[in-house]
Amino acid sequence: MSGRKSLVIAAGGTGGHMFPAQALAEEMLDLDWDVTLSTDERGARFAGGFPEAVKVEIVDSATFARGGFLGKLTAPWHLLKGVVKATFKMARTRPTVVAGFGGYPAFPAMAAAWITRRPRLLHEQNGVLGRVNRFFARRVHVVACGTWPTTLPRGVKGIHTGNPVRGSVLAREDAQYIAPGDYPMSLLVMGGSQGARVLSEVVPGAIALLPPEIQQYLRVSQQARPEDMGHVQTIYANAGIVAEVQPFFHDVPSRLAEAQLVISRAGASSIADISVIGRPSILVPLAAALRDEQSANARGLVDAGAAISMNEKTMTALELAQVIHDILTEPTRAQAMADIAKTYGKPEATQSLVLLVEELAETRGRKRKS
């Protein structure tokens, strides 16, 4: 690395970890820091949005949650290999600060930062710590929380920064919300970076149940897994509804800005994007989440009146159709939901995290010199 200050960002696994990491990387580059992303091969697939100036280092990693018996048996070996490699590299390069955003791909770099005693912080996107962040919570100097309150280990204090959003989201922060009415209306359906089967199974049927006077104005954008796309497209086509169905939308911020209503999983990054741009939403937390973190993520918007939460295990097409109908036929209510969501957003989250990084670099640097 050069003589400039340097930041190693440890993240991976899903877009929920990578999007806030990308936001921090963009800002630190603007401040003339060197930035390196430490991730595994899976995490690297989500690194396409990072600026070209960010150096990407691929490390060995593994999760204990997938891969069957053999995968779980070999996971510790892959993690150990990654930690050893990252430790030797970090002992040589001595980055100014190491920032972890969770996910097993973050484990090697965070372990190396602890072993080499580099200044280090964590950012947790969800209202409940993930496994890797929970393991390191007592081994870092700062824990930044994207959702508040966040359940933390006893004795660990967190700082509420909010969840950083990408520059493409911030660019649409001032996009005016147009309440539903007798004109084309956009409905955005998001299932997170990996899609959501329950949304593919229930949402198209729910929209097909809406009365024709609403259907005629709808323009649907729905994210669906490749194996679900044919089923989803068929239902929309049979109902005569204009719909674009894709496995992944690269222009989510612009689609959010145009939407009258968003139906989404309650991932931390999705909620941050919805809040910063300010749109009414129907949230369907992931029921299979071990720590039920998506319910915790949704709670703030729901309690404030900006969103409605639905249980994926009990949600029916008829029930969802009624909720969609009520929002799209009550423009005053929809506008109020959008306004409340906007107040809940934290567009300054990236800057808050930048300040923590700079403060950590300064205070730990003074202690090393004293």
Describe the structure.
It is a single chain. The strands form 2 sheets. The protein has a 7-stranded parallel β-sheet with strand order 3-2-1-4-5-6-7, sandwiched between helices. A 6-stranded parallel β-sheet has the order 10-9-8-11-12-13, with helices on both faces. By secondary structure, the chain is of the alpha/beta class. Helix 3 crosses helix 4 and helix 11 crosses helix 14. 46% of the residues lie in helices and 16% in strands. The chain has 2 domains: 182 residues, Glycogen Phosphorylase B (Rossmann fold); 175 residues, Glycogen Phosphorylase B (Rossmann fold, 3-Layer(aba) Sandwich).
Briefly note the structural class of the backbone.
alpha/beta
The strand count comes to: 13
Query: What is the rounded distance between the termini?
Result: 24 Å
CATH class of the largest domain: Alpha Beta
CATH fold naming of the largest domain = Rossmann fold
- What is the residue-mean pLDDT, rounded to a whole number? 92
Number of helical stretches of at least 4 residues:
15
Give the strand order, joined by hyphens, for the main sheet: 3-2-1-4-5-6-7
At CATH level 2, the architecture of the largest domain is 3-Layer(aba) Sandwich
The secondary-structure element order is EHEHEHEHEHEEHEHHEHEHEHEHEHHH
Unreliable sequence segments: none
Which range best describes the helical content: under 10%, 10-25%, 25-40%, 40-55%, 55-70% or over 70%?
A: 40-55%
Shape by Cα distribution: elongated
Number of domains: 2
Describe the structure in brief.
This protein is of the alpha/beta class and 370 residues long. It contains 15 helices and 13 strands.
